[in-house]
Amino acid sequence: MIKNKFMALTLTVVLTAGMLTGCGSGDKAKDKDAYRQYGINCIENGSYDDAVDAFQKALDQSVGSVGAEELDICYYKAKAQYLSGDVDGAIDTYTAIIDYNKDSDAYYLRGCIYFAKNDSDKGLKDFKTALSENNDNYELYLGVYETLSKYGMNDQGKEYLDNALKLKAKTADDYMQRGRIYTMLGDYDSAIKSLQKAIDEKLVKANYYMGEVYQKKGDNDSSQKYFKKYLDSGEADSYELMNMGQAQMDNGNYDTAITYFQNALELESVPNKQQITKAMIIAYEYSGDFATAKSKMEEYMKDYPDDEDAAREYQFLETR
């Protein structure tokens, strides 16, 4: 949900704990960019504490003003804090962003963390504020629904989807998002109609969601056709490729699943590398290629030695 849409701002207020401020002198833009990129790399490698330190060092390079880049770094810092287990620190960082520049993304993300802390009252309050700040954002409605559904509030979440469908579609992206909503509501015919409008307007990503609809309808051939269109576009990210691979796994198409997983791992940015690697090992195992599964598992265990489930699976593979 992070968006680089902030206007450049001048430091006119004192912000909480100096989270959005920096110190020092001279041109530190290169250092700031380097620390930011290092922090992103640390997140992708699962080194979340190091990521937090890197993002803070990036912020320390800023002098005199806060702009889109500084706020973007703060969003990354909050994400790293949450992933490292510092939930309260993440809340503080989102709160600092909100205090400085009331943004719907910060309210939404803080609301998600409140739900993770079992504080649904504060979470719902933040969701309400997020939508009041940006009430025509389909993705925001979808995000709220997914969070509420995750925490057993599916009926309340559907109310948000119903409200989103009251909006008028204006763009290809709007039609795509409406297609996603209809899919979540189980209205597959309406989903296909909306997604087809997006596809007709050359929105490539709509092919991915069309593939999901046909997957839910049990039409694997059509699902695969649309997934392949999206794969061939080169726009798929590692999460989407993993989902496409999992869909093939569910249908017993293990070789195709492995292809999707391999494509995902070859991307420049793979924040879910561990999950993809593990899924690919399982695909090799299910396909009957135990030798490759064992070899891949040996590499996996070196990279992720704390995964106890993988250690047990490795013992099984050694017997094959």
UniProtKB/TrEMBL annotation:
Keyword Protease in record: no
Q: Which InterPro entries match?
A: CellSynth/LPSAsmb/PSIAsmb (IPR051012), TPR-like_helical_dom_sf (IPR011990), TPR_rpt (IPR019734)
Keyword terms, alphabetized:
Repeat, TPR repeat
Q: Where are the TPR repeats?
A: 32-65, 104-137, 172-205, 238-271
Q: Which PROSITE patterns match?
A: PROKAR_LIPOPROTEIN, TPR
The protein in question is named: Tetratricopeptide repeat protein
Q: Which organism is it from?
A: Agathobacter rectalis (strain ATCC 33656 / DSM 3377 / JCM 17463 / KCTC 5835 / VPI 0990)
